[in-house]
Amino acid sequence: MTPTPVSARVDLGALASRLPSHPVTRFAPSPTGLLHLGHLVNAIYTWGLAGALGGSVQLRIEDHDRSRSRPDYEGSILFDLAWLGFVADGPLARQSDRLPRYAAALASLSGGGLTYWCDCSRPTVRADGGTVGGELRYSGRCRDRRLGPGGDRGVRVRLDDGDEPFDDGRLGPQVQQPSAQCGDLLARDRHGQWTYQFAVTVDDMQDGIDLVVRGMDLLPSTGRQIALARLLGRPRPPVFVHHPLILAPSGEKFSKSNRDVGLAALRADGVSLEEAIGRAAAAVGLIEGVTPLTTADVAGLVGR
């Protein structure tokens, strides 16, 4: 039997029943490259769902990776959002301003015996645990080694075996096994930087994010973030909605590393913001054919 295709749109009634009357979501780009149509899809869903549900959008710059983040990319992101007309509610937040927040969260886990030091390099992790679903899985090599702090050591959070069920707002019921997928979670890497998985979970919890809207590429991260949030003291996780991705001709998702066409390049070629929004919406099946759209249209675009 051929499975029924999942609609690109979201059942707003079902989603609203799981959220407060004025939900809080976020748009959280990383300043490691220029925004492209794939990011625009995320903005359409984020602001569209917030508008349809009477919610608000926080803008968070996820610059936890200090080796790749650049101020000029942040400036470009802010310029592109202003050009498109997507306006956040409240002040801009940067992860680089929140290092004490992450340290306090890690200390709370460490106080409960839930963390340990790890000196495994990426090649060691690959050799020991291999890959699951295309990502490295940590084998737990350092769990019982009782390593102390020192140079070239990261910190991992213990994740127990077992299922992590959740109900995606577009895809429906899901079940993941974080321990089997990725093993114990790296919170701070061997260079002292906070990882995406840790920082985003802490931020979503402490910022009071009710609704996380993001692309399908991050679906595998959901179970582990729910498990980590529970360890940090959040018994009820946010509602997650994972939207379709724009795929390049190669079949890969649009990305900064692939040097896909960015919004700045489209603007320089004379593409209007309405046409850019229409292109992004059509590329993921929200509309048929490219119809010019404005930010005011997106609230009526993403729901059904």
Tell me what the structure shows.
This protein is globular. The chain has a three-stranded parallel β-sheet with strand order 1-2-3. A three-stranded antiparallel β-sheet has the order 4-7-10. A two-stranded antiparallel sheet has the order 5-6. The protein has helices spanning 12-16, 37-53, 71-84, 99-111, 122-129, 178-182, 196-206, 222-231, 263-268, 273-283, and strands spanning 24-27, 56-61, 93-94, 115-118, 131-132, 135-136, 154-157, 164-168, 172-176, 185-188, 211-215, 239-243. Helix 2 links the parallel strand 1 and strand 2 (56-61). By secondary structure, it is α/β, with parallel strands linked by helices. 33% of the residues lie in helices and 16% in strands. The two termini are 25 Å apart. The chain has one domain: 3-Layer(aba) Sandwich (Rossmann fold).
Key words describing this protein structure:
single chain; alpha/beta; Rossmann fold; 3-stranded parallel sheet; 3-stranded antiparallel sheet; 33% helix
Brief overview, please?
The chain is of the alpha/beta class. The chain contains ten helices and twelve strands.
- Count of beta strands: 12
Q: Strand content of the residues, in percent?
A: 15-25%
CATH top level? Alpha Beta
CATH architecture: 3-Layer(aba) Sandwich
For the termini, the CA-CA separation is 25 Å
